[in-house]
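Why do we bother with holo predictions? Because pocket geometry can differ from the apo form. Keep that in mind while you read this record for (2S)-2-hydroxybutanedioic acid.
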Amino acid sequence: MATPATTITITGAGGQIGYALLFRIAAGEMLGPDRAVRLRLLEIPQGVRSAEGAALELQDCAFPLLQSVEVTDDPLVAFDNAGIALLVGARPRGPGMERADLLAANAGIFGPQGAAIGAVAADDIRVVVVGNPANTNALIAAASAPDVPSDRFTALTRLDHNRAVGQLTDALGARPDEISGLAIWGNHSASQFPDVSHARVRGESVIEALASRLGGLAAAEAWLDEAFIPRVARRGAEIIEVRGSSSVASAANAAIEHVRDDQAGTPWTSAAVVSRGEYGVPEGLVCSFPVSSSGDGYRVIEGLSLDDRARARIDASVAELAAERDAVRALGVL
Ligand code: NAD
Ligand code: LMR
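The structure, written out:
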């Protein structure tokens, strides 16, 4: 008998990333060519027409795996029996808005959406938050669904991971699939730590390969500190500056890969997951780690060595996550 269709809810589906996601998901690129899908597109009333337009185009693609598309502005309808949720819709920072204003506006979105997930989603729901500030929005959603195991809530740092791979392929003259063991630690923000200390290229340590190409270990470390880490950590801002708006296709691609690898399994990638205290990250923070999956959710890869410089960078990003959590707590949300 055929596997029943998976219900996938996409919030902010009428926006840019939504448009870049929907057709690839419906074509089977996220769950594979054997899994039928039902799409639920959640929007705010002003975004409904745009999502309805995307739904018309989905129909016109006649994707064999696509069983239905429903557009709604009601979270209880959108998340009903959902097995996968991609939370993309978020309030962007506007002129004169402070960080706390942004957190407050997004708490007003991710709190009710988390509660709706807790009330009506399928028992095995898995959630990835894309909308910024992604880590703390995931924290808010998870806290608003106390009956859903918190490890079902993740946030997207796969885009940062892919950006780091992209920079290394250039520097090393390697293909993306020849690089492994890279890790993004911390927040999806400029404080994140893209870490190559355990990364390998064609079986060789990335640091040694960089040292051979750049003329020594000191030159490799200088390149990592002065070029690689800031470029990856600030790539979102670079895209905004060059394109005039934030990343879309690469973000949608990363979200698809995040869900695909979570479901199909992977020995190593990066994702933000709810900390259980791994590597000294306070329990409950949604922090990016190196993770693996056996098809049943991301787990932190434990036991990696961290030198003092890595430790300091991770601590700085984790401190930012803790400050965001405290700001949300001060608003009475957590
Ligand atoms: P966009 O403005 O084009 O689309 C956002 C959509 O969300 C809009 O259609 C809006 O109507 C909708 N929306 C707003 N509030 C909603 C709510 N309460 N419920 C449902 N829908 C709602 O923006 P975009 O380019 O698609 O980006 C979406 C988010 O993703 C932004 O927060 C952006 O910063 C973030 N982002 C994250 C990453 C990452 O790697 N984590 C990468 C790129 C962008
Ligand atoms: C990105 O990383 O491209 C997004 O999070 C957008 C941003 O504000 O950097």
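The chain has a mean pLDDT of 96.
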